[in-house]
Amino acid sequence: MPDKRPSTPRISSEAAWQAAVEGDRGAFRTLVTPHLRELIKAARHEVRYRVAVGDFDPDDPTAEELVDEVLLRGWRERHSRPPALGVKSWLLVLVFRVADAVARRKGRIRSREAISLEDDPVLPEFLPDESTGWDDVIDAGLKTPEQAAIAEDELFQELDPRSREVLLMHELRGVPLHEIALALGIAELQVRAILKGARRRLRAAAADMP
Q1: Residue 185 — left, alpha, or beta (φ > 0 → left; ψ -120 to 50 → alpha)?
Q2: Average pLDDT value over all residues in the chain
Q3: Would you tell me which CATH number, out of the four given (1.10.10.10, 3.20.20.70, 1.20.58.100, 3.40.630.10), belongs to the domain 154-210?
Q4: pLDDT the model gives residue 79
Q5: What is the pLDDT of residues 103-118, one digit of tens each?
Q6: CB count in 10 Å sphere of residue 73
Q7: What is the pTM of this model?
Q8: 3-state DSSP: the chain helix, strand, coil percent, rounded to 5?
């Protein structure tokens, strides 16, 4: 016998987004929650890469902390999401934008610390001996589980930031090319050219690896 109970009307994603834009945090949470798993994966990949190139310190930030910042920025900038850009794609773009912002912030802090250290001489017992370089000292402190995964990101270090972003969004996160173009504010034809060039450089880099 068919169920005669009235079904609860489902709010459309467009209506939910409009509610979020108007300040409904619950609607915003409903829209972003299905993408959290994908965001964490993207953030873990981004954190590993940033640690490898020296932008981030190990576990600072963690992937979860990066996603927290992405969601906070998403809430603040929800009014600026293009209607034709999917929520998932928009959030994934924000992962890169927030990582860049965090890296710049950390860079400014390091610059200030470097300036202050010029007037704060290091005591001899804290200096490495002549047989040990600073690189050895730094590397010794980076043997974390995350470092073990850096090898898979080595090839991506051969790419410029825009090429890497396009490649990761399309190849790993499955974002359609037209949405990448919309998110980056460039023509889809340009996105295709960037992707083609990135693939070519990765193949060449992989061929040169031992």
Answers
A1: left
A2: 79
A3: 1.10.10.10
A4: 94
A5: 998 888 877 766 555 5
A6: 16
A7: 0.73
A8: 70, 0, 30
- A 10 A CB-CB count for 198 gives 23
Distance of alpha carbon 2 from the chain centroid: 48
| Gap between the Cα atoms of 186 and 169, Å rounded | 15
Q: Three-class SS of residue 143?
A: coil
pLDDT tens digits along 50-62? 998 889 998 899 9
Region 27-50: mean pLDDT is 93
Q: How many CB atoms lie within 10 A of CB 8?
A: 6
Q: What are the domain boundaries of the chain?
A: 13-144, 154-210
Say how many C-beta atoms besides its own lie within 10 A of residue 190's C-beta.
Answer: 14
Least-confidence region, from 29-33, 88-92, 93-97, 144-148? 144-148
